[in-house]
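Limitations
The structure tokens in this dataset are predictions for the assembled complex, not deposited experimental models. Users should treat interface geometry with appropriate caution, especially where small molecules or nucleic acid strands are included. An illustrative entry is reproduced here so readers can see what is and is not provided.
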Amino acid sequence: MLEITRLSTTQPDFPEALRRLVDWEAADAHRVQEVAAGILADVRKRGDAAVLEYGARFDRLHVDSVRELEIDHAALKSAFDSLPADQREALQVAADRVRAYAERQKVESFSFEEADGTRLGQKVEPLDRVGIYVPGGKAAYPSSVLMNAVPAAVAGVSEIIMMVPAPDGQLAPMVLAAAYLGGVTRAFRIGGAQAVAALAYGTETVPAVDKIVGPGNAYVAEAKRQVFGVVGIDMIAGPSEILVVCDGHTDPEWIAMDLFSQAEHDEDAQAILVCPDPMYLDQVQQAMERLLPGMERSDIIRTSLARRGALICTRDLTEAVDVVNTVAPEHLELSVAEPEKMADSVRHAGAIFLGRHTAEVLGDYVAGPDHVLPTSRTARFASPLGVYDFQKRTSLIQCSPAGAAALGRHASVLARTEGLTAHARSAEYRVEASGRG
Amino acid sequence: MLEITRLSTTQPDFPEALRRLVDWEAADAHRVQEVAAGILADVRKRGDAAVLEYGARFDRLHVDSVRELEIDHAALKSAFDSLPADQREALQVAADRVRAYAERQKVESFSFEEADGTRLGQKVEPLDRVGIYVPGGKAAYPSSVLMNAVPAAVAGVSEIIMMVPAPDGQLAPMVLAAAYLGGVTRAFRIGGAQAVAALAYGTETVPAVDKIVGPGNAYVAEAKRQVFGVVGIDMIAGPSEILVVCDGHTDPEWIAMDLFSQAEHDEDAQAILVCPDPMYLDQVQQAMERLLPGMERSDIIRTSLARRGALICTRDLTEAVDVVNTVAPEHLELSVAEPEKMADSVRHAGAIFLGRHTAEVLGDYVAGPDHVLPTSRTARFASPLGVYDFQKRTSLIQCSPAGAAALGRHASVLARTEGLTAHARSAEYRVEASGRG
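Predicted assembly:
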């Protein structure tokens, strides 16, 4: 038997039940905070020596210097060259498509001139140096390398430093190959909060970066939160989620497998199906029971479905969209007859997969849009990782003498209402200059 | 005598001296962390009751309900209508110019179709509800209301909730007038970490928002850091800074006053002048000594110049730009003959003010670009507050059956290298469907 929560929008406590379902707070948040803070302070103080100790402790990596943890750039290329043809091709297609999509996200500088000759503008530039964190551990994810590195490369970042945990020193050749294709300039076998610390503060060997992106475990996420301000960060990632809305006319095995593909990530991953047809929910549940024994990661799938999965019955598809907007899912699959119309009424989601053929997994690897997406309801305010995360803006203001005089009059009035006399005087000098001119 | 640090790039320890000058870390960071965490937890648990208690304790505001802390929307309009004509005009000009500039920053949705009918896109939408924090306390800043609210309104945010501390219940009419002009939909006389908590978690009276923006004191900044993830935040603001590069040919009094205008903000504000001419640095210092006694906020100016101000002599203007790129200043004034050329080589700054007539103060109030800018070297990775801070993106992926089959083949290969069989099977269903079709 497969255990999974069943909810219905007709039950009186549905809003609370839904909120409980999607609420996610790490069980031992306080401990994670303290551990992360300790590692950060230690690496900040002792640099390489601390990084080495944590690598030995957490990844059983015993080396004499952080330099030995750096992966030679030539090794990246040779890893790519040694891949079987189908893997090389798949990786290349993925990189090309991610790059092509990212190119469309580039933010451009602008400037314009006003009648009195005053010019205003905004200069957009790439960051100098960024760190990308790539999860390793239970599974190495070459796709994550591409999804983090490519938008940085497209933005024009000149130094892209990859940190990837290598338990017992092991790293999948695909991860190195992806780093080569993605434009990574330096790579280290360093993971956990110590990787975030090294990137944020710099060590004797690891250069300090300007921004750290990429998802990691709870310690990595907490470390990123704590260094925010010293460096930029992209977001604080929680467990991965999918919400599938189905009208009841997709092959139930497809939907069952789509839910599995999320649930197999880890025990905290969340897979939710929303459908107005209770019979169809039964069919999908039966398909899951039938298919589960054949899955390699059936234990993880079973646990995550039992813990956080749900089959939700709504009165109609309109109500299904209400559920979507409350959940603000990371991944949203619209397995319905008219997905475009439904997508228009979706207010909050990281990525929307439209139509029965658009399995979420296509977006994980090759569709093009980034797979680093806002989790845990943060799609209410956050966006997919993109080129814009690796660009920054500077405002440009160039007043003509006439413009400075005209603006200076108003600035002086406002400054004086705020009690800031030096502000007012600074503006008035330019007003007086114009009177003399 | 006016006390201010003098540095020269020719001194052997210049890099370390410069780093010490610009490094800023709150003296009692740990205490601030604990106090903020306590207030957040309390407001989260007890809602309105906690907000009322902190208001009584910190702002001496004794009322019976949070509803009494809400400012009636009609009061905003009547505050605007009651302003003297010059203030009303100045505020209107500022609002209009900030709005016109913000309009140019809007990010637009895009989508495109590939040869096999697959469509990709990115949908850009405004956030639903945002909170803006407006500093009050020592001085009420109507300009900050505009600079926070207007970009949100331009983005299309439908609910803009303003929090402003009102010590002893006092609020400047200009602040209310600016809220009216800026498009604030609700306003509360609540400040400090409790304002951030109320916005992040919601209370019986204050609705929870999706993002909190705007600078505040150290407690507000720390509270924002701690709620990041529950809601979005813009940045963590440190003290305000200006760096002026001058070629030695601007009236020394103008530059002295421009430095004062930064220093008068508060005792931690930073004002730095960089110039290749040591005689000119002397002239500016003499001008400062002459002008200081006439300033209303001379004590604050004197303290902040002594603590954090500096006059830096460089070998030439090229070296001055190197100093700029190390400091990554919030405000950068280029008081030189060819400011455009110099601006091109500036890599990091929040806003650049080009030319002798473009006093930084013009940007504080009326030029148009936002005055909420990245401080404390964060211009290396962060941008001015803008419309883009109130918009979010959702990726759109709609595969045609042929596209799903083609992409599915590669996705399956990559999924299997990552050991994710359910991912692979989910893709393969769509490949098989195409084979059958």
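Some entries come with short summary sentences. For this one: The first strand of chain B starts at residue 5 and ends at 8.
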